[in-house]
Amino acid sequence: MTRYVLTLEDSAAFEPWREMARAALQRAIPPEAIDWRIRGGETDLFGQITDDGDGLEALTALPVVKTVTLRASCIALLRDLLCHSDPGRFALAYRIAWRVQGNPHLLEVVTDADITRARIMVRQNREDCHKMASFLRFREEPLQQGEEQDGRRRRFLAWFEPQHHILERIAPFFSRRFTDMDWVILTPRGSIRWDGKGLVCSPEPCKRPELDDGFGELWDTYYASTFNPARVRTKAMRREMPGRYWKNLPETRLIPQLVAGAEARVRTMAEQELRPAPAFHERLRAREQLPAELMPDVAENLEDLAARVRTCTACPLHCSATQAVVGEGPADARIMVVGEQPGDQEDLAGRPFVGPAGQLLHEALGEAGVDRGALYLTNAVKHFRFRLQGRRRIHQNPEAGHVAACRPWLEQEIALIRPKLIVSLGATPLRALDGPGMAMSDVRGTSWTVGRGENAVWRLALAHPSWLLRLGEGAQGDSERQRFVEGLARLRDFTDQSGS
Ligand code: URA
């Protein structure tokens, strides 16, 4: 049998191999007839290959005898497999490509030795990517002489020694993660460069650079202070952080002494008195710094109240919201309008009803002939509740606990403004104002009084403008919007001083 020697660069990714493999498959050259070699690899050193070009030339001189197709799943597997550094990878990939011609379901045969080997190699590549994502440490490149910091993106440099040819695989991860800085990652298997616009991968091997940005001490302090002596598991640490990565990880110098001192530190910690956790959240810190006169439970005016609401940590919503959105409007407003909670735009602007629902409310008030400036607008819950979907913040209804935590603020707003009419928009403020017993479907569009004599306050329950937005245009949307405007028109009775 004629044998063909096909030689590839060690860094060769999928494409160069694919060209050669396609030529061989089209000429029905069986796997046993090909020696896949790596340029500069062991066999070369012993001088057995003299002319790299020979094998491919001889092979392509033969006539094409068949057409070759590979399924997308097979191409994906081979592409992943060829990132491995095993010198046998090209031969294994060709054997699979050859065998799959006769058995299209080969990839599903879990007991097949070639497929098992390929899958193990793919998994090893993934592990290598994972280790690179976890153990790579960037150092900042200092400014060059004469260079200005202003307007220049920060530049970082890292050195890593991957086991396999994974740079092209992992590059998008780093550009997504560190998109706002320029960086270069150097490795013995090539480099990746990112300048905020594009990624450049090069297979050219690099030398380890001098990496010292003066932050080593800071990093050591950070690592040592976050090292938990009570959770030292040396076996698991070794498994997760194999020795070959240690030499490039600055913190590994500290690990032996941290591990050695762990038991003693745990004993000291156990003997220490309990201390409150440091107030790391800006709103907790702000509350600690609130002037003593603002500390009493009941605010004296709307400004005091706003200062307190802004430092509220009574429920977890304050952690994810940008800020508390306090009420807005004249301190002597005769009408108070209570919405559900700030939306995305209100959360960013720090003002109620400035987003799409606020716009609808604004237009409807105009149609009803009511001056928005005369109203005090607020919400039952002062922080925005949302869930993340990608980068979008999707509104979520507040729960009873959030409403209850915010109720004291709403009660104080009512006590300070003493409105004649309180309009609730939607079910959440209805529950906050009147308790859980009242159903929106029973009271929508109706009004009633609460309290007696000069303490009597009118209540009016209307739909929430977001609900109207969701209904959109069409028969139901139009008639509900009309109903909303008619409801708002009743506010006119209260805006002039003679109103009830
Ligand atoms: N929806 C509300 O309930 N309140 C706002 O402030 C904005 C939208």
From TrEMBL:
<keyword id="KW-0234">DNA repair</keyword>
<comment type="similarity">
    <text>Belongs to the uracil-DNA glycosylase (UDG) superfamily. Type 4 (UDGa) family.</text>
</comment>
<dbReference type="InterPro" id="IPR051536">
    <property type="entry name" value="UDG_Type-4/5"/>
</dbReference>
<dbReference type="Pfam" id="PF03167">
    <property type="entry name" value="UDG"/>
</dbReference>
<feature type="domain" description="Uracil-DNA glycosylase-like">
    <location>
        <begin position="326"/>
        <end position="489"/>
    </location>
</feature>
<protein>
    <recommendedName>
        <fullName>Type-4 uracil-DNA glycosylase</fullName>
    </recommendedName>
</protein>
<keyword id="KW-0408">Iron</keyword>
<dbReference type="InterPro" id="IPR023875">
    <property type="entry name" value="DNA_repair_put"/>
</dbReference>
<keyword id="KW-0411">Iron-sulfur</keyword>
<keyword id="KW-0227">DNA damage</keyword>
<dbReference type="InterPro" id="IPR025404">
    <property type="entry name" value="DUF4130"/>
</dbReference>
<dbReference type="InterPro" id="IPR005122">
    <property type="entry name" value="Uracil-DNA_glycosylase-like"/>
</dbReference>
<dbReference type="InterPro" id="IPR036895">
    <property type="entry name" value="Uracil-DNA_glycosylase-like_sf"/>
</dbReference>
<keyword id="KW-0004">4Fe-4S</keyword>
<dbReference type="Pfam" id="PF13566">
    <property type="entry name" value="DUF4130"/>
</dbReference>
<dbReference type="InterPro" id="IPR005273">
    <property type="entry name" value="Ura-DNA_glyco_family4"/>
</dbReference>
<keyword id="KW-0378">Hydrolase</keyword>
<keyword id="KW-0479">Metal-binding</keyword>
